[in-house]
Write the structure tokens for this entry.
Amino acid sequence: MQAQGLQTALAAIYPPRCLGCGVPVGSEFGLCGPCWRDTPFIAGAICDSCSVPLPGPGEDGLTCDACMAAPPPWRWARSALIYDGTGRKLVLALKHGDRQEIAQPAGRWMVHAMGDRTLATDTLVAPVPLHWMRTIKRRYNQSALLARSVARQLGLSWCPNLLQRVRRTESLDGLGREERFTHLQGSMRIHPRHAASLAGRPVLLVDDVLTSGATLSTAAQCCRHAGSGEIAVATLARVAKET
């Protein structure tokens, strides 16, 4: 009762704020009506392999032209938001604005985006890694925060350091698809401590944004080379069109 009273008092002094614009809202970790309306949640027809929106009705098992030409090294992928407008604002606030509280509702959105996709109970949830120098500068890995939130929602184990970034890479912004893949070659590995336990185990890879798929492909290939089981991908946002 004392704890509940304290929470009520704190809520009166510090009312919950919209994650998007900061206006008061009715519950913690929520969006106000206008921000919810302007947040581009992905719905309808999507590519099963990369979650990019497709024209037409929302049928199951659709594949975009890019994934048909070059299938990714995972079975399926789901993203919650389009990386645009409020969706982009939320991702950047989590990634660069120290808005770590966004990870909790974002994890719920990501699980909702998975729909009826089921994961084995021994699936290991793992984030795309940051290089240690970038982690020190940023103080946290936003993908690890998302992975922890998703794992908690699904009741699965998560491993924040399953993968290691062994080579620091520059920003991929402005690079084409092939340049991104080439740039990331040899940049990751499975942490030696977890290599043996990964054999045959399904993995759900988590990242903040899926653009070309180069970063997630590098991570997935590391898992596959280590003998993992089936790989799936979940991201908070999806770039609708590659640049």
The longest strand covers residues 203-210. Residues 1-12 have pLDDT under 50 and may be disordered. The two ends are 54 Å apart (CA to CA). Residues 142-154 form the longest helix (13 residues).
